[in-house]
Design brief:
39% of the residues lie in helices and 18% in strands. The chain is α/β, with parallel strands linked by helices. Helix 2 (60-72) packs parallel to helix 3. The longest helix has 21 residues, at 123-143. It is globular.
Length: 174
């Protein structure tokens, strides 16, 4: 589960479209919930065929929504050799029917927002929510043909795990 605070940041720090027909969308910066509907609407309207990513991550639920759109619309995903795609960004990258990472790809287990980490949480609710959320995430990633070796890193790594070049070669589809 990726629970994040709503901040005043835009959905991505920067979103630009390139190409004669806006066939390339470039997403950089944090993935946040604010303005996400507008960003997704713009992507849907312009119908890019390739998405270039450079993000340290952010809101997991926003990333999942975009990832589902990417996969449903056969958008290719790309991380350049000088870019990073970590945390929630990795979900979007994995959604690409054609995906190529030449940079850094990293994942970690989910965490609660820092400001509620010390509050009491109803244990039954937390366990139910966590298990349901993990099940939904695995189902989504299975739909993206994510290699199964990704899951243990996603579920057990508390700090960021950056995939090796050998692992990235197995994740890439082109």
């Amino acid at each position: 589960i990726l629970l994040t605070l709503f901040t005043l940041k835009p959905a991505f720090s920067d979103i630009t479209f390139e190409g004669a027909n806006n066939e390339i969308v470039i997403l950089t910066g944090d993935i946040e919930a604010e303005e996400f509907d507008e960003i997704l609407a713009e992507i849907k309207a312009k119908k890019p065929t390739q998405m270039i990513l450079d993000s340290e991550g952010g809101n997991g639920h926003s990333a999942r929504r975009l990832a589902k759109y990417v996969n449903d619309n056969n958008i290719s995903t790309y991380i350049s050799g000088v870019a990073k795609c970590r945390s929630a960004c990795a979900i979007i990258f994995l959604a690409g029917k054609k995906r190529l990472c030449e940079g850094v790809l990293g994942i970690h287990q989910a965490s609660l927002p820092k400001d509620i980490g010390n509050e009491e949480v109803n244990m039954n609710y937390a366990l139910k929510y966590i298990q349901e959320d993990i099940g939904n995430l695995i189902e989504l990633l299975n739909n993206f043909n994510t290699p199964s070796f990704v899951y243990p890193y996603m579920l057990k790594t508390t700090e960021m795990y950056n995939f090796s070049q050998e692992e990235i070669a197995q994740i890439n589809t082109v």
